[in-house]
Amino acid sequence: MKKAETILFTLFSVFLMLSCDTDMDDMDNNFILLDLEGNEDLNFTNPAFTVNLYGENDTIANAASVLLASQNFEAEDLPFEVRLEIPQDPYAPIPDLENSNNARFYIEIQWDSDNNGQLCQGDIDLDYSIQNVELININRRDPQDVMLTTVPETVPCE
């Protein structure tokens, strides 16, 4: 009987440990997940890039955008998932925002993929041929697809 009690106690203890094993990083809502994908074979020698998150008041024409978050990452290949930390209250820094429903959030990618020190042809950027590819829902916790492409030759390096 003692052996059965020991086994039950052990199983119960393991169950409690597993049920309480929660990733503390995921308990807060101060992040967004982005699935960076290429619409073509993207070749890059420099794995380092930056993702910037901006917010703006959508009710004001020519509203000033506010940089809310900027984070550096390194990717060896695509697709690549980015976890971008965002401010506790991302609405607060947006000027003249009276209603959070009027906030618009978008991202910018800075990826000097050929590592020449310039962002120009051959580098990687958002695929702007996809409508509103840069707009982000900051309330979603599931990954949001972001399509990337190579910067065209019409953007020459100086």
TrEMBL record:
It comes from the Bacteria. This is Lipoprotein.
